[in-house]
Amino acid sequence: MAESKNKVTVRGRNRRSSGLDKMEQARSKVREQQEQQDNGNQESQQPWEPAINTGAKDCIRDDLAIASVSPDPQNARDFPVIRPTAEAMFLAQEENVGKPYVIIDKGTIVNKTPKNHPLYKHIQTQIDEIVLLAEQIREGGGIYQPIEVYRVGGTDYRIVFGHRRFYSVVYLTGWDGVWPFQVHRQKPKSPKLRQFAENNSRSDLALHEKIYAFKMAYDEIKDDESKELTAVETMKLMGLKNASFYRYLLLNKFPFIYDAVRDGIDFMTIRELEEALKLPDGTEDEELAVKMNLAEMFLNNSMSVPEYLKAVNEDEELESPNDSDLGLDGNDQNNENDDSQAGKEPQNEIRRGRKAKYYVPPRIKNTNVVKTLLTSDITKMEIEGINWEEVNWEDRAQVNQCLDATIKALEEMKQED
């Protein structure tokens, strides 16, 4: 009987001891993890660590002078920042006149972008978000996801990821402050891929910023000669589905697409843009066709057409000195007409290059002009710059010039009436 009792007692003691041990082990594990986090030990798994191994786990936490950290000049965020002390030098450079920029320092953030610039509203929105984030950092006692940097030489560091957080910290502490950063032990192997992977799902990035981020990450992958990846492997590495991957490739087909999306930020949607990039089968000059489609989007939104959409580059396909090129509205600028064309507006300029392939009438605002054009013998009218007897009706560029000059003259006559 006693033996039986002892067995029960032993079993009970073992069961109680086992439960306490497990609880103590769990508590010890929690304490250990907390101590590791407090000591900046980044070997423990953090909830924000990315799926892509870009060296983030090898970072060490270090307090750095904010003035020693600089944004990545090739980061996707279109938010050019100038220190107050550098503004005079920035404005002294002729190429910076009219460019967007922001002045930022402790408690100061000013949008110095011209109000008529396409990016003014976009930059102002980012300023509001940076100020809000700065208040959240102040109230919350810090940043949940640290700013990652790497050493570029000496005591200078470059941001890998966290540009908006960095600007918020500058707004809080100023350039003379100190802040804890996550410092890579060496330059990350794929910083652009990391930036794209982190930013692609963010709704606060504008479309042109996402296009640029994709290009930088895609080029970085392709420039890596250590391994060749298939399209499927590249998609997986970038975290993109098939449709999104090929959409980004299409948006990067010509460099001017990025410029057009950037300048058309207030009205250009992804759906309309995809429609503009769809071309009929057999299109001879895809670049020119895309330019014309994008230019039409600007006109439909009562916006002036950017220069890069008005004509083909002067250096392209200069096959013969007699070839003429097609601009947005189809005007021709031959050598013999240089004097008569000198007073034309910039959009009427035609550059030498490929031969014009389309008849492109200008947009007509007045219904009476349409009526006159369709019901009258226009060749009986005297229009400045046109000699009807010498018009070569087989030369599309010359006919386009006549169309433009005629409609312009009719518009002026109707305004006088």
TrEMBL record:
Task: List compositional bias (Basic and acidic residues) regions by residue number.
Answer: 18-34
- Coiled-coil stretches noted in the UniProt entry, renumbered to this chain: none
**Signal peptide extent:** none
Q: Locations of Low complexity compositional bias?
A: 36-46
InterPro entries per the record? ParB/Sulfiredoxin_sf
- Chain segments carrying region Disordered: 1-50, 315-357
Going by the entry's taxonomy, the superkingdom of the source organism is recorded as: Bacteria
**Per its record, how is this protein called by name?**
ParB/Sulfiredoxin domain-containing protein
